[in-house]
Design goal:
Blueprint: E1 2-4, E2 7-13, E3 21-27, E4 33-36, H1 43-52, E5 63-67, H2 73-76, H3 79-86, E6 89-93, H4 94-97, H5 100-105, H6 108-120, H7 128-132, E7 149-151, E8 156-158, E9 163-168, E10 177-181, E11 186-190, H8 211-221, E12 229-232, H9 241-262, H10 270-275, E13 278-279, E14 286-287, H11 293-312, E15 316-321, E16 324-329
Parallel strand pairs: 4-5, 5-6, 6-7, 11-12
Antiparallel strand pairs: 1-2, 2-3, 3-4, 8-9, 9-10, 10-11, 13-14, 15-16
The protein binds zinc ion (2 copies).
One zinc ion (ZN) binds at residues 70, 72, 172, 191.
Length: 331
């Protein structure tokens, strides 16, 4: 579907058994097309992408660059296969490139660190294996490959017709990038800003020390760009970037208040705090115990991300007791 002259969207489905799709964008140019993100490496995804790139206007062989907003499987999984098919060069932020090996190739150390972090934060022994391994199934849908081009904040990527600026927007992932096209004022937002869901921001071994602090700074960074259309990695495209950013900031403010409220009766682990918060407000609120193991893990990691930011703000303190990390309100 052509969204704006020269910019097309292909909806690439998630693998069988999961629901949703990734919005992949094709930016046409006199020197070849740029593909933004790729989708999972699954038969359905590859099929959808090939179909989208076999039209009168769009051809797979015209793809010269694949720019990856971040290395989550739904954005990066299929990049390597596309490269094999058409010889395109893969580009991503250097911080993101550094995470590929430990996440997708030799991930035993990452699993060990994740387990240790979950244990320290109060996940009960009986739940640990489930939560530790909750994302392992995703790896079968990623063919890891290092990028050909590493990009940094402010770099420009051109295809003769469009010149796109790289905006480093860490938070959802530490090397996440948005792509800004100043002439038509387009923002390809990846998972940084979505219209109908709030991107998950979690503390984990690959997240950096204060991912929520980074995320909020990355949202504020977008304020100086004039944007007419936001083209996100999932869900509908939209116009009102400022409004959506303020809604997301409000969501985190509310969650922060909930967390502080749950902490009003003494020392608690992140897991105990997560148990007291109502999750998925977009769906009317779901109790922690009713979440699937993958969502419970995200909830614990998001709670830790909030606690890390609250600690930086001086609102909570943290002590280690018998290998457990405990948090306490300071007021
Ligand atoms: Zn993501
Ligand atoms: Zn995504």
């Amino acid at each position: 579907m052509e969204i704006i002259a020269g910019v097309h969207q292909i909806k690439v489905p998630f693998p069988k058994g999961t629901s949703g799709h990734t919005n992949v964008y094709v930016v046409e140019g006199s020197e070849g097309s740029i593909l933004i993100d790729s989708g999972w490496d699954s038969t359905e995804s590859l099929w959808a992408l090939r179909e989208g790139l076999t039209t009168e206007r769009l051809k797979l062989r015209d793809i010269k660059k694949v720019v990856i907003t971040h290395i989550h499987p739904d954005h990066y999984g299929l990049a390597s296969k596309i490269k094999q098919l058409c010889g395109a060069r893969i580009a991503m932020h250097r911080v993101e490139a550094e995470l590929i090996g430990s996440r997708y190739e030799d991930f035993s150390e990452l699993l060990k660190k994740t387990e240790e972090e979950l244990r320290q934060n109060g996940v009960p022994q009986t739940e640990l294996p489930q939560l530790k391994d909750a994302s392992l199934w995703m790896n079968q849908f990623v063919t890891p490959d290092l990028p050909d081009v590493m990009v940094d904040d402010g770099d420009r990527i051109s295809n003769g017709s469009f010149e796109i600026e790289v905006l480093w927007t860490p938070g959802h992932s530490p090397g996440h990038i948005c792509l800004y096209e100043p002439r038509k004022r387009l923002l390809f937002s990846g998972d940084h800003v979505l219209y109908d869901t709030t991107p998950n921001i979690g503390f984990h071994p690959q997240s950096g020390d204060n991912p929520l602090g980074d995320y909020i700074s990355s949202l504020e960074k977008l304020e100086r760009f004039k944007v007419n259309f936001v083209l996100p990695g999932h869900g509908p495209t939209f116009n009102s970037l400022k409004l959506r950013v303020s809604e997301i900031l409000y969501h985190h403010e509310q969650r922060k208040k909930n967390i502080l409220k749950v902490m009003s009766d003494g020392l608690k682990t992140a897991y105990q705090i997560a148990e007291g918060v109502l999750w998925m407000p977009e769906q009317g609120g779901v109790a922690f115990r009713d979440l699937a193991s993958w969502d419970r893990r995200l909830a614990v990691m998001e709670t830790i991300a909030h606690l890390k930011l609250l600690a930086v703000e001086g609102k909570v303190g943290n002590i280690d007791m018998d290998g457990a990390s405990l948090y306490l309100r300071k007021d």
